[in-house]
Amino acid sequence: MSSNTLHAPAPADDPAEPATPPEHLEPTIRVTAMPGDANMYGDIFGGWLMAQMDLAASSVASRRARGRAVTVAVDSMSFHRPVVVGSELSVYAHLTGSRRTSMRVSVQAWARDRHAEDERLITRAEFTFVATDGDGRPRELPTEG
To answer: Which GO terms describe its biological process (predicted)?
Structure first.
């Protein structure tokens, strides 16, 4: 099978998919999907969803960098189901690794109907950031602690 082959979204009952949001994390961002964020069918644009995920990931990366951090890559983004207008989107982001100038942030987006409690995994991705100086050049991350 070619590495360029598209795969269908995981079924809702796929045991490989988490059934609930990460218990050890609070949402980095929580927002309501509005009509201006949707296509003519009432589904939220994937680009809007990706932007929310990038905002959440950049918040985590900027805190770790103690300054500016820029997105340099998004890997393994997969959309599992649509988000409809009025859904509450919760985006969870956490640092999964860092090197001299770069950081890796794992992000999951979950949605729930405003009148229900059940959340559904919508998408997840891995974001890579680089800490930059005032001139936009890579800089070393400060020591943790």
So the answer is: acyl-CoA metabolic process; fatty acid catabolic process
Side chain identity at residue 39, one-letter code: N
Give residue 120's domain range.
Answer: 29-131
Pick from 12, 108, 5: nearest CA to 56: 108
Report the C-alpha gap between 122 and 44 in whole angstroms: 11
CATH code for the domain of 111:
3.10.129.10
Q: How many domains does the chain have?
A: 1
Q: What global pTM score does this model have?
A: 0.84
C-alpha 80/C-alpha 17 separation (Å) is 10
Per-residue pLDDT tens for 18-75?
Answer: 677 777 788 999 999 999 999 999 899 999 999 999 999 999 999 999 999 999 999 9
Q: How far is CA 118 from CA 29, 107, 142, in A?
A: 18, 19, 39
The two tokens of residue 114 are: 């405003």
